[in-house]
Structures are given as C-alpha cells and as structure tokens.
C-alpha cells in the first residue's frame, strides 16, 4: 500500500486527498452547563466517524452515516431537556449524553479551528447504551465477580 502523508485526509465521499478545511461527522459525549451565560458545552469525549473535503461531500454522506448509527437526524434545541432522536424520550442536557454533530475545521499548524458546528441529534442514555463503542463489557464481568 502507498504511504499516505499523515497530515492529509482522504474524503469518505469522493476519495480525494486533502488537507484543510476538514469537515467531519462525530459522536460526542458531553453535557451543557446552564449556570453560565451563555450556557457552556462541556465535552467529555468525542470520536470522529468520517471526514470530508467539503460541506457538499459531508451533506451527501450525513444520512448514510446516521442510518448506520440507527439514529435519525433530529437537530436539538438549546433547552435543558431535548428529545431523543431514537425513542422520542427526554434527554436531560445537563447530564452527560450522546450527541451527533457535523462540523468544519481549518487546520492551523497542529490546531484545528472549528467553525460551523451543526448538532444533528441527541440520544438519551437509555438508547446510547446500544451504541457499539459504549458496550459495557468490563462492567458486566465485574458484576458477576461480586456474587
Ligand atoms: Zn470529497
Ligand atoms: Zn432514547
């Protein structure tokens, strides 16, 4: 296989090699702090799912990625309680929950400067348990040892 320069990305839609700006769809775990003005999003972890060379390529793939995640696109508002995109139940935004977002970022040296974040969906903790990356395998083993 050819070595791809690590500072380049390959677009998941058109396979073009590119450097910047980078558009991506990501999963993010975090919560919103409503005790600040304006409310502040506290991010506990994020995981990029796919990256693209342009907003057009991102838009072409969003529905495919979200279908694979079994999560319909349902942009949340900024209220303290929003609606889970999967089950329609409440999502307490002040507690850590799963969010899907699309973003663009310009590379400045080693730093990615984010612009234009679009929140695609929020998922309640009941539903996000079924997300593969969150499988609590270790916790299950620990529980069986307690007997
Ligand atoms: Zn592309
Ligand atoms: Zn749900």
What would your notes on this structure say?
The C terminus is likely disordered. The protein starts with 8 loop residues before the first strand and ends with a helix. The longest helix is centred in the middle third of the chain and has 14 residues. It has 3 helices and 8 strands. With 147 residues, it is α+β, with helices and mostly antiparallel strands. The chain binds zinc ion (2 copies). The site of one zinc ion (ZN) has 8 residues, from loops.
Would you tell me the structural class of the helices and strands? Answer: alpha+beta
Which percent range fits the helix content?
10-25%
Estimate what percentage of residues fall within beta strands: 35-45%
* Mass-distribution shape: globular
Tell me the number of helical segments per DSSP (H or I, 4 or more residues long).
Answer: 3
Number of discrete domains? 1
Q: What small molecules does this complex bind?
A: zinc ion
Q: How is the largest sheet built, in terms of strand order?
A: 4-3-7-8
The counted number of beta strands is: 8
Low-confidence stretches: 133-147
Largest sheet: 4 strands, antiparallel
Summed over residues and divided by their number, the pLDDT gives a mean of: 86
Order of helices and strands: EEEEHEEEEHH
Query: How large is the radius of gyration?
Result: 17 Å
Distance separating the two termini: 50 Å
């Amino acid at each position: 296989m050819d070595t791809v320069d690590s500072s380049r990305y390959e677009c998941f839609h058109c396979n073009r090699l590119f450097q910047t700006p980078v558009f991506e769809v990501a999963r993010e775990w975090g919560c919103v702090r409503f005790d600040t003005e304006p409310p502040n999003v506290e991010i506990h972890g994020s995981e990029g799912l796919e990256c693209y060379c342009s907003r057009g390529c991102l838009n072409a793939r969003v529905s495919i990625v979200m279908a694979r995640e079994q999560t319909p696109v349902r942009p949340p508002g900024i209220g303290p309680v929003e609606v889970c995109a999967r089950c329609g139940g409440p999502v307490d935004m002040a507690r850590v929950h799963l969010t899907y977002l699309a973003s663009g970022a310009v590379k400045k040296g080693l730093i990615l400067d984010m612009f234009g974040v679009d929140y695609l969906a929020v998922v309640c903790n009941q539903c996000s348990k079924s997300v593969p990356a969150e499988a609590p395998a270790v916790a299950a083993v620990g529980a069986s040892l307690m007997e």
